[in-house]
Amino acid sequence: MFAVCCEAHTTKVSRNANIAKLQAGYLFPEIARRRSAHMLKYPEAQVISLGIGDTTEPIPEVITSGMAKKAHALSTLEGYSGYGAEQGEKQLRAAIALTYYGDLSIEESDIFVSDGAKSDISRLQVMFGSNVTMAVQDPSYPAYVDSSVILGQTGQFQKDVEKYRNIEYMKCNPENGFFPDLSTVSRTDIIFFCSPNNPTGNAATREQLTRLVQFAKDNGSILVYDSAYAMYISDDSPRSIFEIPGAKEVAIEVSSFSKYAGFTGVRLGWTVVPKELRYSDGFPVAKDFNRIVCTTFNGASNISQAGGMACLSPEGLEAMHKVVGFYKENTNRIMETFTSLGFSVYGGQNAPYVWVRFPGQSSWDVFSEILEKTHVVTTPGSGFGPAGDGFIRVSAFGHRGNVLEACKRFKQLWQ
Amino acid sequence: MFAVCCEAHTTKVSRNANIAKLQAGYLFPEIARRRSAHMLKYPEAQVISLGIGDTTEPIPEVITSGMAKKAHALSTLEGYSGYGAEQGEKQLRAAIALTYYGDLSIEESDIFVSDGAKSDISRLQVMFGSNVTMAVQDPSYPAYVDSSVILGQTGQFQKDVEKYRNIEYMKCNPENGFFPDLSTVSRTDIIFFCSPNNPTGNAATREQLTRLVQFAKDNGSILVYDSAYAMYISDDSPRSIFEIPGAKEVAIEVSSFSKYAGFTGVRLGWTVVPKELRYSDGFPVAKDFNRIVCTTFNGASNISQAGGMACLSPEGLEAMHKVVGFYKENTNRIMETFTSLGFSVYGGQNAPYVWVRFPGQSSWDVFSEILEKTHVVTTPGSGFGPAGDGFIRVSAFGHRGNVLEACKRFKQLWQ
After folding, report:
1. Which of residues 381-400 of A touch B (CB under 8 A)?
2. Residue ranges per domain, chain A?
3. Residues whose CB is less than 8 angstroms from the CB of residue A314 and which lie 6 or more positions away in sequence, other chains included
4. Which region, left, alpha or beta, applies to residue B347 given φ > 0 means left and ψ of -120 to 50 means alpha?
5. What separation in angstroms does the CA of B211 have from each of B106, B179, B215?
6. Which of A170, A60, A136 shows the shortest CA–CA distance to B71?
7. Three-state secondary structure along A61-74?
8. How many CA atoms lie within 13 A of A230 on its CB side?
9. Which class is domain B61-313?
10. Which of A303, B140, B146, B389 has the most neighbouring CB atoms within 10 Å?
């Protein structure tokens, strides 16, 4: 007998084949990686990030005070609280229902408070399981597709078309006004739809959303509607899918404080699952989501929830509108710049994202060229889906000085 | 043609059959429901909860100050931060590695900071997917089994034996010293093991854990080791599975600040996935966990993470030890009470849980009798698995006055 010295032990557990299907890195860590590499190459450069969509402005004091107060209270006998309800504090659920769904008969008990939309998307996917089919806008926020792959709802990635098998990609481009031609979309169980859209910045109109709800109804589909940018809407596009009659029987809405109050690091969001939404056997979807939330989650931080309460006070709401207004002004500067340079520019009006067309060019090439020549980080459109190729997403989240400096560099590059 | 008026629309999406397998409610919400019903029935009663295991003592001021300071900083230009790394702040990961794994060659990059152990258990299950088999201690914390059911790793619940098909239940009872007889345990891909154990309060010895690691190694299994109560250990039982030689090639460790600093509502935990742990094809498990964390999570709240940093300062560590000491004193009182009443009492020495035997009785009956006659909420042992029947878990999380009052009532009931 010879003992085999020093050979590494390997378990006999098979790697989850669904995770192996995922392509390269999740988009934003990949961009962060390239940004770091660029900074190593140009240690002197003043790199400006208009890439990941991360808020940069301080949280209004009225909101941070609410959180600091809660933190202090936790060190007192009267103010201490341990586990809260997994679904969130009653008071906060009620305030969200009243503030954002006051006229829409959404009740406190329909609201599930969370640590953010990304986590809730994944919890929804865990709830749906691996036997559902799904559709996404193309382009779209990568977490929809990636979580679907992880749960095993898809087939392999097909390199030639840059799509996963078994996902219905609903093309959204300037030619169709960024709203899919539903007559060509196959029926799926789940439809992810984000409006105002990340990345295109486009908000669907009432008429379009009415068609979408009817489409879901006709197909017996569940619509997962991501409204994380609703406060950025400046025209009369619906702020919530539940403004559309009948939506409660077909839709779930996911939303977040991240882009309203600068809560990207504080972590607070919510999901609305109306009691009227039912599986084919009549079972209420909300009951299963409640079970998922109670089993796989322990509620958002009580300090973040105190922040949410402060956000929804009259002063908090006013402060959030100012934050949103600041980023909207950034958006205007970016739109003006690209428009003046002769580009075809989309989005911006109802969202903090500007979607710029570079006809016939690869998004990653444009991303690299912009980074190399201006030290500005953007996001390549193809990172959001194949129909995003030939576009760049420019985020309006940045200090004013940085945004103006980036615009100046864009002008130097292309003028 | 007759239009059917007012009939409720139902989608054509099939309910996830795995969720339908789950039995009744998740344990703790079910106990909360019964507690509420009891309070309706006896509105005058002073109900004392030694049930859910929820911390009751204020968070030490040195820790809440750290969080309040961070909250205030977020309202300043210099102190603001948006999205952090999904894996947690570098500084906090380093401090966890140093504080809890200083001698064990666990590196900062092996630590994934999270919003708590329950969320991480679910993320681990999503990573493993539906094709793995799993073992749990019987009794055990319900989230292991329930998340396994949700992911589709199990068969149906068998009412006659109170077990799910396809889960290996490793019986832990006084007869085997609360450590499973591994010679009778079938090989599974994943082994969940909690020590100090929730609910039995028993900590495995170094010798037992050495056998467990060897068992996992021989079987090519992955051990998911839950050490959320490690700071409660008062003898020389290992505080971490990584104290056992070779564990890094077979184990993941999940832990939490909840029971050390009263963070049940603040939400902060961590998971250690060593680089040495590999799937059967040699692929590092940590790489997949990193991908799961980046895709389905956006990091723990930055304010909670500031709290974690404060916890790991010299003053914070001292303060946490006091909190733990306070609950340990509660535990002693509860143990003394039941021992003096002639019960067989287990746990307590290394955990804030006391496990009391009621031979031949149903746990839910005992739970109901105690609640009815003393207005004290406990937890029925059978809620943690069939081998927990005939036991009651009494949690030591409570104000001293309440614990003493509960002990008094127990004495009145049984003396």
Report:
1. 397
2. 25-58+315-414, 61-313
3. none
4. left
5. 22, 10, 6
6. A60
7. HHHHHHHHHHHHHC
8. 19
9. alpha beta
10. A303
For residue B45, give the nearest of B405, B333, B290 by alpha carbon.
B405
Cα–Cα distance measured from residue B262 to residue B350, given in angstroms and rounded to the nearest whole number? 18
Distance CA B61, CA B58 (A): 8
Are A295 and B150 an interchain contact pair (Cβ–Cβ within 8 Å)?
A: yes
pLDDT tier for residue A23 given thresholds of 50, 70 and 90: confident
Chain A, 142-171: which have a CB under 8 Å from a chain B CB?
Answer: 143, 146-147, 150-152
- Per cent of chain A over pLDDT 90 is 94
Q: Which amino acid is at B104?
A: L
Asked whether A376 and A370 are in contact (CB, 8 A), the reply is: yes
- The residues, any chain, with a CB within 8 Å of residue B27's CB and separated by 6 or more, are B142, B379, B383, B384
Q: How many other CB atoms are there within 10 angstroms of residue A119's CB atom?
A: 26
Mean of the pLDDT values across residues A289-296?
A: 96
Q: DSSP H helical segments within A180-241, as ranges?
A: 206-219
Rounded to 5 degrees, what are φ and ψ at A334? -65, -45
Short-list B228, B224, B229, CA closest to B247 = B224
**How far is B156 from chain A, CA to nearest CA, in Å?**
16
Arithmetic mean of pLDDT, B2-18:
81
Per the CB < 8 A criterion, the answer to whether A51 and A395 are in contact is: yes
Q: In this complex, do B297 and A12 lie within 8 Å of one another by their Cβ atoms? A: no
Q: Which of B12, B75, B297 to mutate to test the interface with A (most CBs of A within 10 A)?
A: B75
β-pairing verdict for A376-377 and A48-49:
parallel
Alpha-carbon distance of B187 to B168, in angstroms, equals 8
Torsion angle of C-alpha atoms B65, B71, B72, B75, degrees rounded to 10: 170
**CA of A40: how far to CAs of A20, A27, A29, A51, A368, in Å?**
30, 20, 17, 18, 15
Distance CA(A143)–CA(A157), nearest Å, equals: 15
A382-406, pLDDT tens digit by residue? 999 999 999 999 999 999 999 999 9
- In the numeric block, which tokens belong to residue B79? 């102190």
To the question of domain A25-58+315-414 being in CATH 3.90.1150.10, the answer is yes
Residues in chain B: 415
Nearest-CA residue of chain B relative to A22? B291
Quickly list DSSP for B267-313. --EEEE--TT-B-TTS-BHHHHHHHHHHHH---S-HHHHHHHHHHTS
CB A404 within 8 A of CB A67: no
**B23 to chain A: closest CA residue:** A291
Which residues does residue B159 pair with via DSSP β-bridges, in sequence order? none
Q: Which neighbouring-strand residues pair with A215?
A: none
- CA of B152 vs chain A CAs: smallest distance (Å): 9
Kindly determine whether residue A303 and residue B71, on different chains, have CB atoms separated by under 8 Å.
Answer: yes
Q: Which CATH superfamily is domain B18-58+315-414 in?
A: Aspartate Aminotransferase, domain 1 (3.90.1150.10)
- Tokens 């077979």, residue located: B250
Rounded Cα gap, residues B242 and B217, in angstroms? 14
Backbone angles phi, psi at A86, to 5 degrees: -60, -30
Structure tokens at B137: 């201690």
Q: With a cut of 0.85, is the ipTM above it? A: yes
**Which tens digits make up the pLDDT trace of A76-120?**
999 999 999 999 999 999 999 999 999 999 999 999 999 999 999
B64/A72 Cβ within 8 A: yes
Separation of alpha carbons B117 and B115, rounded Å: 7
Query: For residue A144, how far is the Cα from the chain centroid?
Result: 9
